[in-house]
Amino acid sequence: METDFLVIGSGIAGLTYAIKVANACPDKQVTIITKTQSDETNTKYAQGGIAGVMDTSHDSFQKHISDTLIAGDGLCDEKVVEIVVKEGVQRINELIDWGANFDKEADGDFKLGKEGGHSENRILHHKDITGREMERTLLAAIKEVPNIQLISHCFVLDLITQHHLGYLVTKSTPDIECYGVYVLNLKTSRIEKVCAKLVMLATGGNGQVYRSTTNPVIATGDGVAMVYRAKGRIENMEFIQFHPTALYEPGIRGQCFLITEAVRGDGAILRNQDGEAFMRKYDERLELAPRDVVARAIDNEMKIAGTEYVFLDCTAMDRDKFLEHFPNIFEKCKSLGIDPLKDFIPVAPAAHYSCGGIKTDEWGRTSIKNLYASGECACTGLHGANRLASNSLLEAMVFSHRAFTNAVQKINALQFKTGIPNWNEEGTNKPSEMILITQSLKELKLLMSDYLGIVRNNQRLQRANRRLDLLHEETETLYERTQVSPQLCELRNMITIAYLIVKSAELRKESRGLHYNTDYPQRSAILQNTIL
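^ that's the sequence the OP posted. Answer follows.
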């Protein structure tokens, strides 16, 4: 296949970019590839909302900028923060024009929520399913654009670069170029090459490397792993954000149900096993401190009590308001025999968001020519050492728009690369048993959760490194001998992601933001990004 614009991923980052380049270039073909069904994305599971300065009578760009910089703990790119905050309002209004419905007051003004780290109410939301509403809006919008085709159930294996043409490519190779991707078509079980003039990676996060995560099963870090294999630049992977309040269900591993931060913004209180409201011991901002602070506080309280959860107390909240704003949370809790307006909700931190990723510039360009990245897989410099709540959807829309403006300026000067070989499966056989993959995946999730969680130390990092070396060796041997499958490729990608997190954590000799190492409990005066 040949396509002018190729988009990998169908969340808010990929769809926003696709709609804009397709409308600006009606004579060009835009192709979106997603590895499952089109709406199964991290965007879909975003509950809380999207941050934007919509009420200038109480809020301001400077306040939003300041809140973002404080949360980022000194590592944010201030220019990027200003870009996102100031351009974000226009992007939100575009989404509203496309049909997104955000909750409003009786007088027609938007209901603006407040979350951890925000000094003002600025979170737009659609009940507690904001991401699902935004995904619905964008999927409806692409159906109206004739030069967009969306292909589901195709797993992208690798980026095509000069390496596949027989050239030696290293991290010091100047002008590495992307010519397209190799794809495993899950409907036909055939590996196909897709040639493209420009490629946008919008592959989402990597929460599935942990045992407990709020991310769906698709969040396996595929885009970051592919860029690293292609010798592109990766940045700040040690900063993994754990959401403080995932619903605790005994025996449940994998994707956890998220209790949005907006619940705490509306007045819910965190309590330990003794019923004590403990956040006053950790931060004067209490339940609305930044997520790294709240997650470490909960982790400490669990270790003190020897339990796997704390409680979220919503019993003093207005029942009608709770039912209106958080209907899905209410129904989920009721299905487990919990009435959140009468009973405490058991919660625990879970892996939620990667602040690091593919290093991009202010136009969404990666270190590889003709390759863009946007959304959670990208590291733009906005989040620094810790993401401010509800800034992620905003960032994705802003940088997908910026990538679009850059892409349409150069698309006409580009040609398809010729002579790209087909995928070579010579010498591989069908897998004889899946236990080799599933067991390695269990080991990976366990070591990442135990050694690279909310609190780390040098000994844990060393152990993780040794165990990852063995997993990597075993999986690469399996990959060389076995016909590719999504399960094997995801395992391989997740081992790469785990390595990048461990290596970045080893390089950071301080505690900053989401990275807390008990061997280096203090912040360093020297600011640096970890680039791999």
